[in-house]
Design brief:
Length: about 400
Amino acid sequence: MSGRPFLQIPGPTNVPERILRAMARPVIDHRGPEFAALTKEILPGMRQVFRTAHGAIVIYPASGTGAWEAALVNVVRPGERVLSFDNGHFSSQFAQTARDLGIEVEEVPLRWGQDVPPELVEEQLRADADHRIRAVLIVQNETSTGVTANVPAIRRAIDAAGHDALLIVDTVSALASIDFRFDEWGVDVALCGSQKGLMLPPGLGILCVGDRARQVAERGGAPRHFFDWRPVIRDNAAGFFPYTPATLLLFGLHEALTMLFEEGFDEVLARHQRLADAVRVAVAAWRLQPLGERPERLSNSLTAVVMPEGISSNDLIRRARERFDLSLGVGLGRINGKVFRIGHLGALNELEVLGTLAGTELALVESGVPIELGSGVAAGQRQFARVEAPLAAV
Ligand code: PLP
């Protein structure tokens, strides 16, 4: 198909030309001074992105799943317990990762589309009188449902319960798209991947580790080698890694950070808010429903849309891909066929969102969903237009 493909799944996201060019270069010696200088620029940049002054950044050649495992094995031993909340595919997979590592998981079932109620976090921790729970696992942006967790309220809930469990937050589809504040929110470990808000190809798992988690890791955690963050933090001080790092992805990360700060990090977040608002008004104009239950907790990085009864989202997604080279996200796990997801994170602008909405409308109509062509696009345009007087509905 001619023209550019529309990769509008909620990650991996489109990699900007600038980043591709930054990576299209010879591999350098990862034990030489040029590489050390690169590392020493990336680490403070990533601290700014996580909004932390002292958190340690740990970058692994891995994906988000590797980052889950890294976050767990450094601070939780097999047989120890964690608290998690099942409100989507990724929160449930994070819990499964823990189980597979021999960790006991107290998993609270929620509706997929619900956000984690902070009062439930407090209640669960209060019930844990002998403090067996070592960590609370939270997915900030549940990529399968398009619902965000109120992380600062969850921190307050942990404190209100007087519990010393660590707060581990998955920011895989939130970081650099949705506000996240490691220090201010009292997060102990945050984890991310390269392929979403950071606009890179998949291949990096990135952690931000606070002092308390580092202390726990000194005397606890599981048997570990590759994911042990201590040698990484030690060698990073001189700009190096205890193994061969993903050299070219790190050049890409350096360029991505430059782009984020050139645009202005707050503006990056504000842009994601604008784009998400336009997608949400488009969904409303189609008279379809987001899967997320509470409007104030809908994600700025993706929108999960519920299909009308009797029409499969897999059919819609196939049509969008085959007819228009538009990739939309499938419904994951138990909601397969029932929802589709529009990714609106990473390197993306207003016109690309309108193009995505136009393609989605065409695929919806061709799949037999009774929407009015142009209704979502027009709603999105009205959302974007900067005019004095409110625009009349079309
Ligand atoms: N956590 C969240 C919130 C995700 O969205 C994903 C992947 O989409 C993961 C974890 C797993 O990351 P990966 O697929 O990079 O292993």
